[in-house]
Amino acid sequence: MKTNVTQVMVDEHKLILRMIALVEKNTELLEQGKFRDWQFYLDAVDFIRNYADRFHHAKEEDVLFIELIKNGMPEKQSPIEAMHMEHDQGRAHVRAIEEAAQKALAGESGQAAIIAENARGYAALLRGHIEKEDDILYPLAERVLPEEVRERMLQAYDRAEAATPELEETYRKLVEGYEQRLAS
Ligand SMILES: [Fe+2]
Ligand SMILES: [Fe+2]
Question: What is the value of pTM for the model shown?
Answer without folding.
Answer: 0.95
